[in-house]
Design goal:
The protein is α+β, with helices and mostly antiparallel strands and 329 residues long. The protein has a domain of 169 residues: outer membrane lipoprotein receptor (LolB), chain A, CATH 2.50.20. It has four helices and 13 strands. Strands 1, 2, 3, 4, 5, 6, 7, 8, 9, 10, 11, 12 and 13 form a 13-stranded mixed β-sheet that branches. A hairpin with a 4-residue loop joins strand 1 and strand 2. Helix 2 packs antiparallel against helix 4. It is globular and about 60 Å long. It starts with a helix and ends in a 21-residue tail after the last strand.
């Protein structure tokens, strides 16, 4: 009887120990006293605040970014309109006018022209004198209300070695026969800025005109400090040149130069330059008289011998001077 009881006791002990081992509770876990329990928290990220006055970038395409871009564009347009207002204060001027244009059926980029320009508002008068002794023309004059409102032109040399003769032709012939982008009657800083602003307003009907402004930089042969405006026109804009660089004098707020670029592999190069116009060393409201708006006589070239060219003449007889203005097409 005692042996039977002993065997039963040993069997129960083995079963109990095996159960404890299988369940992992052979060594009971010691509970942490309540006073020593600690709540573990993840470390909080340190908040970084921008310095006072710092402008945080906006997500591209966000309504706020679009609003900021539109606001900047309006400010730039206001600046250009202020420049236009300054040009309206010019009653007379003399300037070194530099010009280069892409002309002809094949849109060939012509050599740069170096011209001394004299201009007055009332009556509207312009005289161009070409500085380059190899230029095709020596001088031209337009005075509204005189010479039947035609341009007087003196070529640098005549045909077959003969002395040149003074010629007279309608101002628009320079454009008709691809001697210039604009007639001489459109010359002047005021007309330049009027065309720029007019183009911006019309182009905005086809999409956004992106305008950016850079800090002043030296421009032209006199290294005049100018604000740089970059204008990018939408695809629906009527002109081929979709990129324009415009330079406004930091000292006078008058336009100094503009470059027009057609699309190409390289944005700004000789292959993509459509036109360039520059007013270098402009002298405002100088004293000009009637003597500033006549063709100067030269050896063997009597200035009063005038050959008139009319619309009925053969185009081969026309030696229309390059009398364009400085603005966008």
């Amino acid at each position: 009887m005692s042996k039977t009881i002993l065997r039963s006791f040993l069997a129960a002990a083995v079963i109990t120990t095996g159960h404890l081992l299988l369940t992992g509770c052979a060594k009971p876990e010691t509970p942490v006293p309540e006073s020593k329990q600690v709540e573990i928290k993840e470390p909080a990220e340190k908040e970084t605040k921008p310095a006072e006055g710092t402008k945080m970038p906006m997500a591209a395409g966000s309504p706020a970014a679009a609003s900021e871009s539109a606001s900047d564009t309006q400010q730039h347009i206001a600046f250009l309109k202020a420049s236009l207002a300054e040009t309206k204060k010019l009653k007379t001027l003399t300037v070194n006018f530099l010009r280069q244009e892409r002309l002809g059926l094949l849109r060939e980029l012509k050599p740069k022209e170096d011209i001394i320009a004299e201009h007055r508002n009332e009556p509207f008068s312009v005289r161009f004198t070409w500085n380059d002794p190899k230029s095709e023309y020596r001088q031209c004059v337009y005075v509204h209300g005189k010479e039947d409102n035609k341009v007087l032109l003196m070529p640098r040399s005549g045909l077959f070695g003969l002395p040149p003769s003074l010629q007279k032709y309608p101002a628009e012939f320079a454009v008709t026969f691809q001697k210039a982008r604009n007639p001489i009657t459109d010359f002047g800083p005021r007309r330049m800025m009027e065309r720029v602003i007019d183009r911006i307003e019309k182009a905005r009907a086809h999409g956004e005109v992106r305008i950016t402004r850079s800090d002043p930089k030296p421009i032209g042969p006199l290294n005049e400090m100018c604000h740089h405006f970059e204008l990018r026109y939408p695809a629906g804009d009527q002109y081929a040149c979709k990129l324009q660089d415009l330079y406004i004098s930091a000292a006078t707020n008058l336009p100094v130069a503009t470059y027009l670029w057609i699309p190409g592999k390289v944005e700004r190069s000789d292959s993509t330059l459509d036109a360039m116009y520059m007013y270098s060393g402009l002298k405002a409201n100088v004293a000009l008289t009637e003597a500033n708006f006549v063709i100067e006589s030269g050896p063997g070239r009597p200035a009063d011998e005038t050959k008139t060219v009319s619309a009925g003449k053969n185009s081969g007889d026309i030696q229309a001077g390059q009398h364009s203005t400085e603005s966008s097409p």
